[in-house]
């Protein structure tokens, strides 16, 4: 039986419709503004938000967008350069225990380092209670750069398992230490929620290695999230070019500064100028030129259509857009396509999260930063 032109017309319209769904735009809706260099957002009950500001403040944002006063009880932070009050996550059981975790640039007698603290949010949402630093990066370094500082609550079998991952930058001035296991510079660590070291961490019992280390050879990880299969994904800043997406596995060496797809600032090779070496992991994806990535989230909802389910979203500080990344086989495939969202906003995207309503939320890193909800167009 011959195929009719009407069939071809229908098929073409169907393909066009599918392409539109896959490339669907979003409509930004400002939830709140006037946030000073916001770094991370968490979702409180009853439509409220908790936002960290790099100068050292935590603020509750009402569902109406009204900003609350800075919470009391935040410890002193070293708010210099890239340092300050950085990432923030709520405990998986927050509705019952009101516990949260935040990381920050912790000042010392000489230098500073990334620290992770646990606290409880008061019932009236005005202060932090029972604040305790449960991890402090060693050593402290005189530097205002590369703190890393993304927190992820670990899962086993799809359920929270009481463990936390924390990314730690190599502080820029100590990049070679990222390859050494006697320090926390350029590492991802894994600890219990009270700061204890899990007995199954890969370097427990190894002479000369710090037991908190989960992976090493990182530069400055400012994006981390769990894929739907529970595997930890991160991205990190390269030097001039060579920003990376990595799938993190225990005990693995991710190469910095020995291998990189970037080059020195101002030009010229990094070290030997190589991109691969035995015993060092290759990135799943890299960007040249750098996009300066920050924030990272997988989308599990179908609020934007089914074509977006399982896509990865990464903010760009350098170019000011949200990168929607399609993967070949969720969630361990190669990058198929990238789509620049919100490129006309003209703002540095610092954080991206999926909210309880299934929508994406982003923070813009500005002196008067914004919390923005992305609505389906």
How would you describe the overall organization of this protein?
The chain is mainly beta and 377 residues long. The chain has a single domain, classed as 6 Propeller (Neuraminidase), CATH 2.120.10.30. Helix content is 6%, strand content 40%. It has two helices and 23 strands. The protein has helices at 5-22, 94-97; strands at 26-35, 38-43, 49-53, 57-61, 85-90, 99-107, 112-121, 128-136, 148-156, 159-168, 187-192, 213-216, 221-226, 232-236, 243-248, 285-287, 293-298, 312-316, 322-327, 335-341, 349-354, 360-364, 369-376. A four-stranded antiparallel beta sheet has the order 1-23-22-21, with no helix packed on it. The protein has a four-stranded antiparallel beta sheet with strand order 5-6-7-8. The chain has a four-stranded antiparallel beta sheet with strand order 9-10-11-12, with no helix packed on it.
Indicate the overall shape.
globular
Number of strands: 23
Mean pLDDT rating: 93
Radius of gyration: 21 Å
Strand arrangement within the widest β-sheet reads: 1-23-22-21
Measured by DSSP, the beta-strand proportion falls in: 35-45%
How many DSSP helices? 2
Please name the CATH architecture: 6 Propeller
Q: Could you state the CATH homologous superfamily?
A: TolB, C-terminal domain
Helical/strand content category: mainly beta
The CATH topology is: Neuraminidase
- Low-confidence stretches are 1-23
Largest sheet: 4 strands, antiparallel
